[in-house]
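Hi support team,

I'm opening this ticket because the web form for multi-chain structure prediction keeps timing out on my end. I have pasted the exact lines I submitted so you can reproduce it. The total is 288 residues across two entries, so I didn't expect it to be a heavy job. Is there a limit I'm missing, or should I split the entries? Thanks in advance, R.K.
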Amino acid sequence: MNAAIPLSWSLALSAVLFVIGVVGVLVRRNALVIFMSIELMLNAANLAFVAFAREMHSLDGQIFVFFVMTVAAAEVAVGLAIIVNLFRLRETVFVDEVNLLKG
Amino acid sequence: MIPLFALFGSVLIASALLVILHKNPVTSALFLVLAFCSLAGIYVMLGAEFVGMVQVIVYAGAIMVLFLFVIMYLNLGRDVESGLPTQLRRGLGWVMGAVLLGEGVALMARRVVPGPVPSAAPMVQGNTQAIGVALYTRYLFPFEITSMLLLVAMIGVIVIGKGRAAPASPPPDDAPAPRLSGGAR
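Hello R.K., no limit was hit. The queue was backed up. Here is the completed structure from your submission:
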C-alpha cells in the first residue's frame, strides 16, 4: 500500500462512471441497456463510498456498499421480471414504444 | 500502485462507454462484466478486499447472468455476427489461444524453482472479519431488513413473472389461469 491513491482520483473516476450511466439512460432506448446503465450509476456510488471509507479510515462506507449491492440485486430481479412481462405483452423492449400504463 | 489504478480506471471507463455505445445488448452485458471486474480491482486497491470479492461474485456472477439470461430468453441478440467478419474473429481466437498456450509453456520451461514456501500464517488478513463483526453488531438491524428486502423482491418477481394468462397468444404451457390470480392475492 505504498503511494496511496489520491481521494480525488477515485472520486473523479466515480463521477465519470456516473455520467456514463446517466448518458446511457438518456441515450439508449433498449430497456435492458438502460438497466445496465443504472447498474453503472449504482457502481459509481459504491466507488465513492469505498473511496471515502478509505479516506476516513472507517468501515461504514464498505458496509453501505454491501447494502447498495443488495438493493441493486433486488432491483435487477424485479426490473428484469417487468421487462420480461413487457416483452410478452408488447413484443418489444424499446421504451419509446411503451406508452400505456395499462397494457 | 498508481499505474495499476490508471490501468484499471481506463479499462473501467472504456468498457463502461462500450456498454452504452454498443448496438448489441449481449456485447453490452459482457462489457459490463469487464467493467465490474476492473471495478473490483480498484476496490481491492482501495483496501476493500471483501467488497471487491463480493463485487465479482454478486455483480459479475449473479446479476450479469440474470441479464444474459433475460437477453437470450427474449432472443434480443440476433445481430451477433454483424461485428468483425466471422473468419477474422475465428482466426483471432485461435491466435489468442496459441499465445495463451505459449505463455503456459514458457512458464513451465522456465521451471521456476520454488523458494521456501511462504508459510500460510502471513496471509493478508483483509477486512472481511471486521466487516462481519460490524454487520452483526452495529448494523444488525439493517442487515436483517436487507433479508426482508430480498424476500419481498423474490416474491414480487415470482408474482410478476407468473403474469396473467396471455390473452393474445395461444394458451401457454402453464394453463391453469384462474388459479393464478387466486394464488397471487
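A quick check on our side: The longest helix of chain A spans residues 60-90. Let us know if the file doesn't open in your viewer.
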